[in-house]
Write a structure and sequence with these properties.
The chain is an alpha/beta fold. About 45% of the residues lie in helices and about 10% in strands. The chain contains 13 helices and 10 strands.
Length: about 300
Amino acid sequence: MTVNDGQADLLLNFFCSAKRHNIDVRRHVIFASSAELAESLRGIGMTAYYNEVFGQFPTKAANAYGDRTFHKMMQLKVLAPYILSRMGYAVLFQDADLVWFRDPRKYFETADQNVDIFFMDDGARSRRFSPYFANSGFFYTKTGMNAVLFYWETLLQGLYFLRGVTSSHQEVMQRALSDLEGRIGMVTEILDIKEFVSGQQYHRNKAFMKRIKDGKDIPWVMHYCWTLSKVEKLEYMRLMDHWYISPAYDKKLDRAAMAYLQKNPHVRKAMLPASFLQSNLKWDVITSNRVKSWEHLCASD
């Protein structure tokens, strides 16, 4: 997982979702966008890594899909899994805007051993994501040279980022998958969208969403993609009762929001979610609680 300061609450909510469903995430490694962020994460009991050779990254969340902040963070998302795969690890990579209901690692332990890489189904069927339509926000690679070559190929094709040809590393990954299938016979499997749910289902299958909310269907994970910005992610998570952070923490954010409005009178209250959540939500809001563990910031069962 890779995060910057602007994704603080999404990251915490993911950890709290795991806690709610009794899933151990202590081995989850977070690649932070700055040394200060990594230190803050470690301060509340998370495993975080940063190296100055990564370069400099934005501290706020992206204002919209595909903007410059989104683009810059994509580069770190390519680098992080490559490092771990090159070290010989199997890699389960995901974005911060997921919640877990069951431990997906158990699924991959018994999955087809002939498959090199598993991807969540994005749900989109646009030409640029063909032929796999893989979602780059959740995927698993086994150990081995095929996985290393996939990440290396993705890094090389990262030149498309630098040239501004595309702002989506999801698009770049489709090209790498197709190329390596033809050259080395790499095997890719796209996961069942009803078991590993993407945001497409939230918008296109309301009956299924109701069954999940009512506890009648329990997928492995749900990914709140298919959103314009973080504002919609937070809204949809709350509507689905997938917001697992303590109400006391939410109140603290409300107070911080009011303080932000006072300092920025030009911001209309109706625009607060977009302006405040995108640019002003810092890890100091969390660490100022002076807690020793992120678990203390989660809502009770």
